[in-house]
Structure formats: C-alpha cells, structure tokens
Amino acid sequence: MTDYTKIKIGRHHGEDVDLKIDNDTVSRVHAQAWYEPALEMVVVKDLGSVNGTEPAGQAELAGDTIRVGLEGSVVLGEVELSYDQLKASIDAKVAHSDQLTRAQQKEVDKKRFRSISLISLVVVAMLSVAGYFYYTLSANKQAVEASVDELSRALHEAEELMRNPPQIVVELNQEMVSGFLVYSDGTATDTRTGLMWSRCLLGQNWQSATKTCEGSPSTYKGDRTQGAATIANQAALLDKSDWRVPSRTELLTLVQGVESTVFQTVLPNDPMGFVWSSTPHREADSHWNVNFADGKVYWNNNEFLRYVRLVRDLN
C-alpha cells in the first residue's frame, strides 16, 4: 500500500494538527487528508468528529472517505475547505518532510565523513584541488538554499496567506483555470490570495491572440527590481499603474498547490528560473528569490541577475 503523506485537520492548537481551524464546530482532531496522484484528488477521512465531514461541489463519497476534485470541497462543521486549501497544506507538509529528511541525511554524511581517516597526503591534495574548483563554481552561482527552519517559516507564511481566500466577484463566462481567473489582457487573479499577477515576466510581451508570452524575459540585479516596477507603472503596463515586486511569501504561493499544467497555462512560456522577491535577506545587499524549477526558496547577493514577475493588489 502506498504510504501517502497525511495531514490532520482540527481545532487543537498543538503538534498533532497540521491544518488548524479556529471554529467551535470543528473537533480538536476532526479529519485527515492526503493526495492520491492516480486519482488527481485529495482524499479526506473523518476521524470521529462531533459534527461530521460532508462533500461539496466536485467531491464524492467513497466508502468511509471523501474524494475531492479540483472544483470540490469538504465541509467540517460550519467550515468549508477547498481542494486548493487542502492540497496546499499537504504540499507544505511534504516539502517540510523532504527538507527534514535531507537535513538528517546531511548529518549522517557528516558523521560518516568524520569517521574516515586520511589515506594519504596525495588524496588530501586531490580533494583540496577538487574542493577549490567546486567552491569557485558555487561562488559564481551564489544560489544559497534556505535552511530547514527558514523554508518551514516561508511555507507557513504562504499557507496563512491562502488560508482565508477573499471574496472575488466572477463575471459571467469568465475563463477560470483551477483557482485562477485568467484575462485576455495578460493578467491573472489567484482566488486563493486575491493577488493579480502579470502573466508574463518583465521583458516578455503578452499576445492576446495566442494567449502566450512572446520573447525572452529580462534579468535584473536584486536592487534594481523596484526601479523596474516603477518604469512599468509609468508605462501603464497592461493598462495598470500600481504594479509592485512580490514578497517572498507571495511568490511562493505560485508553486504551492499549483499543478505544473495549471502553472504553464496561467503563466505561459515561463523559463522556470530564479525570480526576485522584494523581501531582503539578513545578509547585506541580498534578497530572497524563488526558483520555479524546483519550487524552493533561495537568497542571492544583489549583484546577480534574476527574473522579475510583477503583482498588484485588487482594489
């Protein structure tokens, strides 16, 4: 039997619950949920709650579980949780578990390395030379992955941002891709956060006829992104003049709970590289960014060139 990563949902403010809901109709440990790739659904199982768990929308009963599709949700007591909210919480726990596993493996590797005695001065010299070249290449790249604690904090912030989706008016016949409202003017609104995104990276041109981004995106130094946003506003990019550079948390919501096919539809022709955020790193002259190739958080010195995707708040 496949060992899926499962989350617990409930009102208990302790280590036993992954998705906490502050509502008296929700039991302390109300239900558990996991994602089944073969079904492309989130599966929810009630854990003997007082007020029960019911399907809604594109969701169906399957034995003692509820299968939730992309447009479905479940109702726990008086609280409704969408597929996107459930999937985002599951993905966050998977990412956190992966980071912990890698950290533990690193500790095991360190202990193993300490136990190995030096064989000869020649081997030491060869390793020193190899280490020098590795350091040189790494220094040129300057992509420093976030620590386990920092990644966990970033994922929690993204989860909190998506936990209480705003009320958004959807016009009749408005095109919607999963949780995104996509517009022909080159913008897309994430209904989980209420943020409107430019569908193209800066430097690309939106083509409404083909619904894609044309050309190669521009790259910017970390301390030049705000200036790029100012220029875009002065030029009324996509007929808007209140664009800004997104925070680390806001960027991370684009990879949390967003399937690759949905991402490529909403944000077409994306090179899946590093994208600057407006969040500074504690190291001087550095900012956080998200690598859309692996969905992880990194920080870089401002001298390095990265992409920029603009965002705006809905009025």
**In whole angstroms, how far apart are the ends?**
48 Å
Helical proportion? 25-40%
Structural class: alpha+beta
Kindly report the oligomeric state of this protein.
single chain
Task: Give the CATH architecture of the largest domain.
Answer: Roll
Note the run of SSEs as H and E: EEEEEEEHHEHEEEEEEHHHEEEE
Q: What overall form do the CA principal axes indicate? A: globular
The CATH topology assignment of the largest domain is Mannose-Binding Protein A, Chain A
Q: Beta-sheet strand percentage?
A: 25-35%
Question: Main beta sheet: strand number and arrangement?
Answer: 7 strands, mixed
Count the domains: 3
**Unreliable runs:** 132-141
Mean pLDDT comes to 87
Beta-strand segment tally? 18
Radius of gyration: 22 Å
Give the CATH class of the largest domain: Alpha Beta
Break the fold down into its secondary structure elements and pairings.
Blueprint: E1 7-10, E2 19-20, E3 31-36, E4 41-46, E5 53-62, E6 65-76, E7 79-82, H1 83-115, H2 121-141, E8 144-145, H3 148-163, E9 176-177, E10 180-182, E11 187-190, E12 195-198, E13 205-207, E14 212-214, H4 225-234, H5 248-252, H6 260-266, E15 274-280, E16 286-291, E17 296-301, E18 311-313
Parallel strand pairs: 1-2
Antiparallel strand pairs: 1-3, 3-4, 4-6, 5-6, 6-7, 8-17, 9-10, 10-11, 11-12, 12-18, 13-14, 15-16, 16-17
Helix pairs in contact: 1-3
